[in-house]
Fold:
Amino acid sequence: MRIVTATAAVLTLAGQAAPAATAHQPTTDGFWRVDGYGTVLAIRNGTFQEYQTTAVSCLKGDSAQRTGPGTYTMPDGTVLTVRTQGGGDRGSLRMDGSVGDRNLRRIRELPDACTRPAPKGPLAAFDVFWQSFEENYPFFSAKGIDWHAVRDQYRPRVHVGTTRDELYAVFSEMVKPLYDAHVAVQDGDRVFAQGRPGTAVPTEELDTKVKKFIVARDLKNARDVQDFANGRITYADLPGGQGYLRISGFGGYAGDGAPYAAQLAELDRALDTVLSQERTQRLKGLIIDLRINGGGADALGIHIAERLTDAPYLAYSKRARNDPADPTRHTRPQPAYVTPAQGPRYTGPVAVLTGGSTVSAGETFTQALMDRPDKTVRIGQPTQGVFSDVMLRKLPNGMSAWLPNEEFLTRTGRTFDGTGIPPHLKEPVFTKEEFDKNRDSAFDRALNVLRIHGGAAS
Structure:
């Protein structure tokens, strides 16, 4: 069940802890099947244990220890909240930083495969790898991939003598044609992953280069240039009365390994300064720069959106593939709403800058602004096209596979997986020519739109 994004483990919405247990509340102890995630849970004696299941396997996944009524904390600090519903045969699971719950159904006992030793060896690892994608990956058809043909091509290359390096190469070749930045093969410190062709997956080096360029060019005449949240957020007042807000990720705000509550607290400290009463009243427009954004916690994006509206609205709905045999069947979509925050809010024109290095939670935040009631225009290039939380599936040989199994739907039921969210106004984003000629066409276009057109796309 571990949620991972391009930059960090995705962590639950603040303030959503389970109520204290009472004598009338059914226990969460027992065995549960998670709807849509190929997962069974065993909750016993204060321990939460995940089992990752397929038709051919059952392997232990993450574990956590009880830290309060209905709450369990993983070794990395991620908090899980489990509630029962109705008569106690149904339940829900929520994870720090994610949006929505996962539905649980009580079962009598663990599947047989979970109670006996898992098969070992290269062939067993291959079969679990292939089956994990077969049962959970939603996008084979959209990408034109015959996954059964992939198995027929590669399984004959695997045998009892296949080395670890050879198996890693096989797995990497199998998923390469997906060009999905939320798909990866991990073996210790080495990871095979790639983004959509023609795009660059965000790195610390790219972020540093771009930030230096922006400060020198776009913000050279700006006032009150400030960094927040461990350098992940930058704000500046521009000469024309507009504001510039750069967000390079939705995590790492309080340092590596800090719990979600600490990340949220750092974000609020930044937003309280950036969107003060005085500034929200005088701003003539706001540029939100997401062009280099490696993702993180979707809930942090919703939290920012709540500072940018006076009216509640639907950000998106989230659903997961839930039938191992039918990739067209999904869980019931769960809506995620943006509700106005208390305190100062900015409701004027917004220009959102995006590009191929806008990834994961950077994209769900972009999507959360699409139906913002006030003027919002997107400028730049399409986003990367990966929205789902990432399933980390362990393999019998100690390797891991990362894959998505969710879709984020707009109000009209549209998704942008693969293609990314398109801009209203296309401009080049950090190309070699832009750097060579000291140009930032998307930034300049955003200023022009906010000054001349009041934020409306043209």
